[in-house]
Protein: FAD-dependent monooxygenase
Organism: Paenimyroides ceti
Amino acid sequence: MPQELQLQVLPEVAASMDLLTENIAKMVKTSVVDIKKITVLKRSIDARQKQVKINLKVKIFFSDEELIVEKIDFPDYKNVTNAETVIVVGAGPAGYFAALQLIELGVKPVVVDRGKDVRGRRRDLKSINRDHIVNPDSNYCFGEGGAGTYSDGKLYTRSKKRGDVHRILELLVAFGAPQDILVDAHPHIGTNKLPKIMQDMREKIIEYGGEVHFETRVDDFLITNNEIKGVKIQDGTIISARKVILATGHSARDIFELLHKKDIFIEAKPFALGVRAEHPQSLIDTIQYSCDYRGEFLPPAPYSIVKQVNGRGMYSFCMCPGGVIAPCATAPGEVVTNGWSPSKRDQPTANSGIVVELRLEDFKPFEKFGPLAGMEFQKTIEQKAWHLAGETQKVPAQRMVDFCNRKVSADIPKTSYVPGTTSVELGEVFPDFLTQIMRQGFLDFGKSMRGYYTNEAILHAPESRTSSPVRIPRENDSLEHVQIKGLYPCGEGAGYAGGIISAAIDGEKCAIKCVESLIHQ
């Protein structure tokens, strides 16, 4: 019978199946030739001691046993060409996983997205990086795959209670993601691999009778007696349906404005905001692995840090080992940063959002905007940063120690942020209370991570799209909007997810509830 075993080994052992087999053979007191196969079930890094180790959970198949290889395959999708239609607004993880779940349940999804497909998006990403031109409908946030496709592909989530994380990971593997995401403690696909996965998901939706329409922006919701009847797109075309899953992401400000204008209930939601800090990856490796050189068998080191400063949380967000900083504005006249890593995480720099939790009372100067107060707070900082950096897609930047000492940096070295930087005293970008917290917070970070607080670190401002500044409330049981029947607020944009996995889970949940409602109507 196969045997499961937990062990801790050196990185070079974990990287070599021959060495691992020898190690395990000694542990279970058998010969190497008696081991037919070893499957790694779980893998994580333990860097708490000076000698970094790899934690493994493995399954051992012995030579006298039948080896059964479990193939990961797709669910039993149905042809829904002639089935009832549900409109899915948004082709990000929430939207696509909702669409696939609808197909699995025998309902036809019609997915509409304001942006372009993954291939078409690349041209617009090139324009924002090279020419500083922001396409409001196609950028790092809008288009096929949503913000996640060109923003790293981290799959780690703490949302274990929200749904079946393993199901989502297995579906991603079926669509071409590496099997390692089922094993690693902090799984990651990589921005270079995600586009093909999203394209394959779209092709599967179409293969089974669903529809996917790009460059199709929703301009209005058709509502009668507080019940959804469909949507109107930008060219005036009306798409009718009894159910609409709204999965538009955390940056679809026009959707928030449309809902507010139509007196559809939404509410301001706290979020976090700050800067994106970039260090040399070798420096982070030295701090995290307690060594001068990490060697060939350890991956670029990540970090995660949280501090309480003046009663508020200040923490790392979307940390990207071996990654780059990207321009993520969604409209002209603003600058926004985010980070991503390729699958190999082989860039020479590490970056992370370093953000401070905001509270509803922080938005008081914008209270005239009602539930959009947080969004306006966010916009003001992004627009101020754009102005201070020279009114292009360059961002305000400052060396970390200089920022804490209120000193404009004499020079900013070239960073991974392709549009470029402008040396600015970042205290001019943020409200005083936020600046004070960040200054103290970086000093505190340096005490916990020796070497982190350095002028080698460059701060880019702002990191402002951590989560939605608006919540679109829904009923706990039905997941329908609290006011509009048939409207299902979903994913990050509605305030119910925070990343690819939780968004995908929420998309599936909304699809299931949507179909249950159709059956009982």
Observations:
- Residues 3-66 form a domain with the Alpha-Beta Plaits fold (CATH 3.30.70).
- The mean pLDDT is 95.
- The first helix runs from residue 11 to 14.
